[in-house]
Recover the amino acids of this structure.
C-alpha cells in the first residue's frame, strides 16, 4: 500500500461533490448504498454483473485489488463520490500503457436515490477534468448498453461522439453496447472542478 499512498491525497471538488479514495469504513458505507439499489433488477448496465451477487467481501476485495495491483503501466482509479459528506457512488478511470496511449476509459455508478439530479454528469465531468487537465490524456473512452439511456445522455451532454458499437452479454444474452470517445480538444468542462493533491501522485499514472 505504501507505494500508492499518494493516491489518497487526490481530491476532486465540484459545486456539490467531493471525489477521493475512501477509508475502509467509508467503503462499507458505499457497499450499503449499492445494497440499496443501483439499477432496475431486470436490467444490467455493467459488463461484469457484480450486482447480481452483491457480497461485502467481494466488494471490498475489488477495491483493495485495484490499489494492490496498481502500476504506472496499468492502473484503475475508482474514486468515491461524496455528497453532503456521504458516499453515494463511484467514478473511475483506468488505463493501460498510459504514457504511450494517453487514453483513459471511464466507468461509474450512483445509488438509485441519487440519480436523476445531475450528479452523474458532475462526477464524470470531474474525472474528465482530471484526465485531460491533470494527467494530460488525449482521449477518453466510455460506453453504455442500449437500455442505459441515462449514461448515453451524460456522454452526449459532455461532448462524447459515438464511435461504434459491439455486442456484450453480461447475463448471457446478447445486448448492443454503444462506444463513445471524447478528444482533449473537444473537452469543455460544464462545472467548476478543483483538483488538489495530484502532483506527487503523477509518477504513479505514468504521467509525470
Amino acid at each position: 500500500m505504501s507505494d500508492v499512498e499518494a493516491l489518497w491525497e487526490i481530491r476532486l471538488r465540484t459545486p456539490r461533490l467531493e471525489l477521493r479514495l475512501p477509508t475502509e469504513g467509508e467503503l462499507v458505507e458505499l457497499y450499503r448504498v449499492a445494497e440499496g439499489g443501483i439499477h432496475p433488477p431486470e436490467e444490467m448496465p455493467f459488463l461484469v454483473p457484480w450486482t447480481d451477487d452483491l457480497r461485502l467481501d467481494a466488494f471490498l476485495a475489488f477495491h483493495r485489488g485495484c490499489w494492490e495491483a496498481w502500476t504506472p503501466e496499468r492502473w484503475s482509479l475508482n474514486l468515491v463520490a461524496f455528497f453532503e459528506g456521504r458516499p453515494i457512488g463511484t467514478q473511475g478511470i483506468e488505463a493501460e500503457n498510459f504514457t504511450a496511449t494517453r487514453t483513459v476509459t471511464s466507468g461509474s455508478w450512483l445509488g438509485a436515490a441519487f440519480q436523476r439530479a445531475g450528479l452523474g454528469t458532475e462526477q464524470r465531468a470531474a474525472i474528465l477534468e482530471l484526465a485531460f487537465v491533470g494527467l494530460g490524456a488525449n482521449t477518453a473512452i466510455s460506453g453504455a448498453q442500449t437500455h442505459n439511456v441515462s449514461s448515453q445522455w451524460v456522454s452526449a451532454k459532455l461532448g462524447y461522439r459515438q464511435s461504434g458499437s459491439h455486442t456484450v452479454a453480461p447475463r448471457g444474452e446478447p445486448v448492443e453496447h454503444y462506444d463513445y470517445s471524447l478528444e482533449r480538444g473537444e473537452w469543455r468542462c460544464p462545472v467548476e472542478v478543483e483538483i488538489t493533491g495530484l502532483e506527487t501522485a503523477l509518477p504513479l499514472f505514468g504521467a509525470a
About this structure: The two ends are 20 Å apart (CA to CA). The mean pLDDT is 96. The CA atoms of residues 78 and 92 lie 4 Å apart. The chain is about 25% helix and 30% strand.
